[in-house]
Amino acid sequence: MIQTIKKQWFLVSLAIIFAAVIFDRSDSLSTFGITLKNNHGTDVIIFIVFILSGLLIESNQIIAGIKDIKATLLALAVIIIFAPIAALLLSFFPMDTGVIIGLFIVSAMPTTLSSGIVMTGTAGGNMAHALFVTIVSNFIGIFSIPIILSILLAFLNQGKELDIDQGAIITKLILLVCLPLAIGIAAKAKIFRAGQLAKFKLQIVNQCLIILVVFISLGGAKQVLLGKGTAIFSILILVSVFHLMLLGSSFLLVKFFKMKQGRYESIVFMGSQKTLALSVMIQVTYFSEFGIALLVCVTHHIVHLMMDGYLSTKLRHGLSVKNQ
Fold first, then answer.
1. What's the CA gap between 103 and 94, in Å, rounded?
2. 34-69 pLDDT per residue, tens
3. Per the domain annotation, does 270 fall within a domain?
4. What are 158-181's pLDDT values in tens digits?
5. pLDDT tens across 243-271, in order?
6. Which of 124, 181, 270, 299 is the least buried, fewest Cβ under 10 Å from its Cβ?
7. Count: domains in the chain
8. Which of these, 283, 45, 308, lies nearest to 149 by C-alpha position?
């Protein structure tokens, strides 16, 4: 019953936030979201999310997550191999060049820093493994992004030399992921013992923070979303199909390799989600002449948050029913 209420609350909250920001004629909500973004609001939220994640992670999860080589390889396969292939297949449909470039950028990205880990935990999966995949995929992304994008762009005759700021990515991983996670784990070991009720409350707080990330993303993207008129609808369909392809690939791999509950959730969420910050940086730095590519990046981020938010609570509800 509690899980059902939590699922409904999360989905309703996402829908309300989306409608409130998009249909706010005064633009006060989007302005507030932009203000938070410009003042490192997203970074602060991610920092807090990982502190809470450290409080939620059990020591046995950390060991199991690092040792689960099969799950790690399957998640990386979706991130590095299946995602670019899915984008390439979709690019053969008639679309604006900028839209295709935006899709290529998204497909080449490593997994997101925060939401996938929270949703893995919400679904009953191993958050420590999700964190491990996050760190590994982002480090690999430093080297894989230029290669993947160069291959994909060759199909559009848009070859570009990409110079990724490796130091900036590593610094961000350390400051926004490793440091707060270590703080959370240390706090759990020394001063905080979370019972079931406390864990439930922490998961609710984490979900509230993810909703806040959606709010900030919507605030910064509202003008881009509305400025393209009817193009937004075709892009919504495109990124939804793309994300469903990644989810489908993840579930097929999970089924084929017989991954059980508790192990497959991190593959599904970490494999299919893509980081927004890095994709925006790539678009602005190397493809600024294709403004609509930014819309693809932002729209996919919002779509995957909403789709996976629903999926995570549905998987958790199914697990609760099975255990009854």
1. 13
2. 888 888 887 888 788 778 877 776 666 677 777 889
3. yes
4. 555 666 666 776 777 677 777 887
5. 999 999 999 999 999 998 888 999 999 99
6. 124
7. 1
8. 283
Tokens of 270: 């970490």
Domain holding 125: CATH number?
1.20.1530.20
Helix extents (H) in the chain: 2-22, 28-38, 41-56, 59-67, 69-77, 83-90, 97-108, 115-122, 127-153, 166-173, 179-190, 196-227, 231-256, 264-272, 276-286, 291-323
Q: Is 126 helix (H, G, I), strand (E, B) or coil?
A: coil
Domain membership of residue 214 (yes or no) is yes
Question: Residue 229 gets which letter from DSSP?
Answer: T
pTM of the model: 0.73
Task: Note the pLDDT of residue 135.
Answer: 81
Q: Which tokens is 77 given?
A: 């396969």
Residue given tokens 């807090």 in the structure block: 48
